[in-house]
Design goal:
Layout: E1 4-8, H1 12-20, E2 30-36, E3 39-45, H2 47-51, H3 60-66, E4 71-74, H4 77-94, E5 98-102, E6 106-110, H5 121-134, E7 140-144, H6 147-154, E8 161-163, H7 169-173, H8 185-193, H9 199-203, H10 207-214, H11 217-226, E9 242-252, H12 255-275, E10 278-289, E11 294-305, H13 308-316, E12 328-340, H14 359-367, E13 375-378, E14 388-391, E15 411-423, E16 430-435, E17 438-452, E18 465-473, E19 478-484, E20 497-502
Parallel strand pairs: 2-4, 7-8
Antiparallel strand pairs: 1-6, 1-7, 2-3, 5-6, 9-12, 10-11, 10-12, 13-14, 15-16, 15-20, 16-17, 17-18, 18-19, 19-20
Helix pairs in contact: 6-11, 12-13
Length: about 500
């Protein structure tokens, strides 16, 4: 069962206009006016206009009379389509091999076989919406079994994201209004006149009378929404994408046959990459079946590569996920993310020691869906929890050096845990401490190491200090504990004790 994401941009046209014309005041209501003969109506409104009661479909003259100083811009569908195409191409490189424009205000993605690279469906949707919002473009995203269901839900809900579980499409769309069915306005008005209000009511009605009166369109849209009829997505492609194809006179379906032709496509793709001095970071295998449906597999690499053997292995590891159905009539292999890759001298073991390359392991784990692959690098901060950062496992080590400081524990708590202690203030280590219900007697201690707050970050750390001690209990376990404050002045901290780390 495919999984389809519909992304809806409620203010696409107005956001595009504001970016193109910064002179428009940010707090001023902005609307887009469409024309049909002598009739003028609002085809798009921004959030400011919606707050004062303006809505899509309202007569332009009425809107102008209701709101003084209203900014009105003529509709430019061609410019909106160009903006939507840019968003679609960006989503193609980041999220899914199968992405298409869903005009006039959305895009659609088939994420089957690609969502695991984003940490799962929920994380994928939230990350997608957050990245659009960071660009100043509000969005709503829904993932469901069908394009029609995801489309209707995205345009009918108020939440930013929603995940419809597999097999729950009918229940999810039953209460949606008829306007969510992608029917023309005249048909929707006629259905409302007959007393239909929701998609559930329409789906429960016998099909023959509706077809006799309105034609086959209502039944087709219902079947597409409920998954009874396939609705393939024609993926967008830009001229810069390097893509190779193989069509078959007779459909293929055996795993061995698929693997053979995938190997040939990889070899052909690598030759084209080499001719342009590029390496691939993300490769998409598009499978066109004879029943007019499309499947896709995405493989990513930590570094740009054009090694045909390695790319073939990454794709072969996932061939078992392909469902050939009644047969495959075409295979396409596209390099959707590439980077420059120049030839380099191979290290000789006769001259210098060869560095251990773990890139292949990172690629295998990443394509299996493991998202927690990272390295720790130092940060210029004395505060322990701020002194490290996560970086890419293949990031350049230049500029990341550990400062010369006191010994640090191998395990640092996510959050320091409060402990009970008995200690002589202000500078003596504890005699004993209780952590997680167990009392530990201190046999040896080293410290204190005073760490001051970073006053340039926040005012609450102007006078804050911590006194750290490395202590060892009677079982030779070593811990890193600290007192909040200097032991004298209450302004420097609460004088409570915390355990922050455990040594090996």
């Amino acid at each position: 069962m495919p999984r389809v994401v519909s992304v809806f941009f409620p203010t696409l046209a107005t956001d595009r206009i504001r970016r193109a014309d910064p002179s428009i005041p940010g707090e001023s209501p902005l609307v887009v006016v469409a024309r049909s003969g002598s009739k003028r109506w609002l085809s798009a409104v921004d959030q400011n206009a919606a707050k004062v009661g303006l809505h899509i479909g309202m007569a332009a003259a009425k809107a102008q009379a209701l709101v003084q100083g209203l900014h009105m811009v003529d509709a430019d569908p061609a410019a909106d389509l160009v903006a939507l195409e840019r968003l679609t191409l960006w989503a193609l490189s980041q999220y899914s091999p199968i992405v298409a424009i869903d005009p006039p205000d959305g895009i659609v993605l088939d994420t089957e076989g690609a969502d695991h690279l984003q940490g799962g469906e929920e994380l994928m949707l939230s990350g997608l919406v957050n990245r659009f919002r960071a660009r100043g473009l509000p969005a709503r995203a829904v993932i469901a079994d069908t394009w029609g269901a995801a489309f209707g839900l995205a345009r009918s809900m108020r939440a930013e994201t929603k995940v419809i579980p597999t097999g729950k499409t009918a229940e999810a769309v039953a209460r949606l209004p008829l306007s969510a069915m992608r029917l023309n306005a005249e048909t929707i008005v006629s259905l409302r006149t007959l007393g239909f209000k929701t998609i559930g009511e329409l789906a429960a009605t016998p099909r023959a009378p509706l077809t006799l009166r309105f034609g086959p369109e209502i039944g087709r849209r219902l079947d597409q929404m409920l998954g009874r009829v396939a609705e393939p997505i024609d993926p967008i492609r830009c001229p810069e994408i390097i893509e190779v194809h193989r069509a078959f006179a007779e459909p293929i379906g055996a795993a061995e046959t698929i693997a053979k032709y995938v190997s040939r496509l990889v070899t052909q793709l690598c030759l084209e990459l080499q001719a342009k001095g590029l390496g691939v970071r993300r490769t998409d295998l598009i499978v066109h079946r004879v029943d007019n449906t499309i499947q896709a597999l995405r493989a990513g690499t930590a570094k740009p590569v054009r090694d045909a053997v390695w790319l073939t292995k990454l794709l072969h590891d996932r061939i078992e996920k392909i469902d050939p159905g009644f047969g495959i009539e075409k295979l396409s292999l596209a390099a959707t993310m590439v980077e420059p890759l120049n030839d380099r001298q191979i290290v000789s073991s006769l001259v210098e020691a060869a560095a251990v390359d773990v890139t292949s392991l990172i690629d295998i784990l990443g394509n299996r869906g493991t998202q927690r692959i990272y390295r720790l690098a130092p940060v210029a901060s004395d505060v322990p929890e701020r002194s490290v950062q996560r970086i890419s496992p293949v990031a350049d080590e230049e500029g990341h050096t550990w400062p010369l400081i006191w010994p640090r524990p191998v395990r640092l708590m996510d959050r320091p845990e409060q402990i009970e202690v008995m200690a002589l203030l202000p500078d003596h280590p504890p005699v004993w401490f209780t952590w997680r219900g167990k009392r530990r007697r201190v046999k040896r201690a080293d410290g204190p190491e005073r760490i001051y707050g970073e006053w340039w970050r926040r005012t609450s750390e102007w006078v804050a200090v911590r006194d750290y001690f490395t202590v060892e209990d009677e079982t030779a376990e070593r811990y890193w504990i600290y007192r909040s404050g200097d032991g004298v002045d209450a302004e420097t901290g609460s004088h409570k004790w915390f355990l922050h780390g455990v040594f090996a």
